[in-house]
Design goal:
heterodimer; A: 5 helices; 19% strand; extended; B: alpha+beta; 20 helices; 14 strands
Chain lengths: 222, 513
Amino acid sequence: MKRWLSHICITTYLLALSFGFVSHAFDFKTGCHPVMYFLVWDMFCGWAGFEGRMQVIGEGESGKFYELAPAPWGEFHPYGDMARQHYDPECKQGERIGHMALNHTKHEPMVRIFVVEEEYPKKFNLPDAQYEAYYGKPKDFHKYCHTRFVLTPTGEILNMQPTFFVYQYQWGLRDNPRLMSDARRSQPFIPSGLMNDSHGAFSSTPFYEPSPGTPVGGPLAE
Amino acid sequence: MSTGNSSNSTTGVRASLSEFFYAEEVPYGLALVRIVISIALLLAMVPRWPYARELYSTDGAPVPVWTVYGNAPLFPEPSGAVAVAVHSVLILALVTSCLGWCTRFSMIVTTVTYIFLNALDTIGTMNKYSVIASHLVFILCFSQCGAVWSLDNWFRRSRLRRTGVSAELANRPVRFAAWPRRLMQLFVGVVYIGAAFTKFKIPAYFSGEQLQTWMITSYNLPNPLGRFFEPYPALLAIFGLVALVWECAFIFLAWRGISRIAMLAIGATFHFMTLLTLGLWLFPVVCIGSYLCFLNERDVDWFSRLFARWRERGQGLPAAIGRLFRPREWPVLPALAPAWAQAAFAAMAALTVCGGIALEYKLDRYGMRRPEGPYALKELDPNYVAEELRPSERVRNEDKVLLFDIGSKVLAGAVVDRRTEFRQGDTMRAECDLVPPHEDLWLTCELEDPEHRVIDTTGCTVSADSMRAIFDYNIGETMGPGNYSLVLKIGRDEIMRRSFRVLLAAKGARLAN
C-alpha cells in the first residue's frame, strides 16, 4: 500500500512537471490557471531599457492633491531600494494600493484617483562618474510620466491608457501612413479582443490593435 | 523470437527505475536542504512579518496570484489578524524545520503557510525563487529529512538508549527510500531546462542586450559588478551561451562522476555571478541550497574523512573547520513521550499566534491607535502633480541609445575591442545599441575630420524590433593622420560622438585605395 502511494506521488509530480515544461515549450495554456506559475520556468522572460515606477495620487474635493503611495506610515521595500508598488510592471494595482491609504488615514472626500506610470532610461542608473566618462556629458535625467488610470474613489475606471511601452510602440506604428490607412480600412464594425502571450517585452504586441485609451483630461480642479 | 529479450528489457527498466527511486539511503542530502532552505525562507519572511497586514490581508493591499491570471479566487483573502497569525506560525515552523523538531509536521505547516502567503502577494513576495522554494519544502514533506541532523533524531536516540540499546546501535542512522531526493533532483533539472527554453525565445538574450539592461537596474538588490559588465554585450552574449549550454546539459549530466561535480560547480558559479551582476541574493541561496539534494552517503563519508584529516593537522583554518564538524556524543535526554513533544509544539504554536497578533497590534502599522489619531495624507505640490499628469510624450532620441562604440573586431554581433587609434588600412567598426521602445529609425553616422568638417556621411534603417546597428569604415590613405570624430545622429539630434586618431599605415602595408 505504502509503495503504491509513493508510486502515485512520483507519477503525479513528474506528470505535473512535464505538463509545465511542455506547456512552456510550446506556449500552450501557460496562463490557464494560477497554478501554472508553479510549473512554468520563465525566469527573466522580459526586459526593458527603461526603469518603471508607479505613483498613486488622490484628488480631493478642495482641488488639492494627495500622495496615496507610499502611504504616510512608510513603505515596504521587498527586495532592494524600491517600494513595493513599483514592482507592479503594468501599474494595475494602483487602485488597491491607493485604497489601502485612503482606508487608514484622515482626509477630505476624494473625487478622483490617478495611477501614473513613470519611466526613465536605465542608463541613468549608472553612477555619475561612469555615465560622464562613457557618454561624454553630464546626466540629463528625464522621466516620462504616463497616466495609466483615472478612477473614482470607489474604484470605477473613468479613463485608462495602455502601458507606456505599448503606447510608445503604437505611436511609432501610427507614423506609418500606409499601415494606418490599411488598418482603418479593415477595422471591423465590432472590434474583437485579442489575447497574447508575450515572452519578450515587445515581441508580440498586436500592432493592429486599436488603442483602447483616449487622452486623459486635466484634473478637475483646473 | 524477441519476446524473451523484450521481457528481460522491461524487467531491466523496471529494476533500474526501482533502484533509482527506491534504493535505501540515509537522507543526509535532504536534511541539509531542509536546514538551508529553512534559513533562506527565514531571511525572506522575517523582514515581511511587520508588514503582514499590509501585504496579505483584506486590511491592506494584497495582490493575489489569481488577479494576475484573471481567475476566480482560490481561497478567501484573510483578515489582518489571520494574516499575522499565519505569518507568525510560518516563522515558527521554519525555525522548527531548521532544527528538525516535529520535522514532518513542521514541513507541512511551512509548505501550506508559505504557499498561502505567497499566493496573496505577487508583487512583493511571490517570485520564481519563492516558487522553487515552495517545491523544495513540498517535496520535503514526503521525505524523512528529519532522520539525521535534527532534534527528532536526538530524541529518538535518547529513547533507544534509555531502553537499553547500545550507543553504537542507537546512533546508527536510519535508511529510507530515495524517491523524495530523486524527485528533487529531477525538479532542479526541469527548472534549468525550462529556463533554457525561456532563453531560446528571447533573441535579445543571445545578443547580450537583455542581460545589459538587467545589470543596470535597481529592480533587484544592489549588485557590485553589473555596471562594469554592462558596456560589453559581446562578453555577456558569450557568458549567456555558456549558461544556456549548462542549463540544457544539467538534467542529463548531474547524476554521477565528474560530470556531476562539473554541473554543480558551474551552477554554483553561475548563481554566485547572478548575485554579483544581477543583484539576486536569495535566489542563489535557494538554488545552491537545492544542490544539496545531490549529496549522497559516499559524499558524506568523503567529507567525514576529509575533516578527520584536517583535524589531525592540529592547527590552522582547516583544522578548525575539521573540529567544527567532529563527531559528537550527545547526552541522553530525559524520557519524553512523543505525544508530549507534539503537545509542546502545539502550545508553542498557540503562543506564537497570540504573541504575534498582540505584538503586531502593539506595533500599530497604520498608526490608527496613535494619541493624535490616524495619519493625514501628504499633500502634493501642484507643480509636481501637473508634471506627473502631463500628457504622454515621445521618447527623446538620446534616450533611445544605450551604447555607441568603435573598434575593429566584432564578436556575437558586438564590438569587442574598443579603440581610439586606427592605422590607415584598418577597418573601423562602429556599434550602436538601442533600447526599446523605439520607432523605425534612420541612424546617421558622420565622419568629421580634424577641422570638424563632415567628410563622410552614412546611415542605415533600424526597424522597431531591432536594437543594434553596425557601421563599417575602411580607413584609407585619403584619411591623413590626425584626430577624427564619428558622430551618431538620429534625425537632426547629435546623440553621441566618438573621437579617434588615425596613424600612418604600418611600413610595408599596401592599401587598396
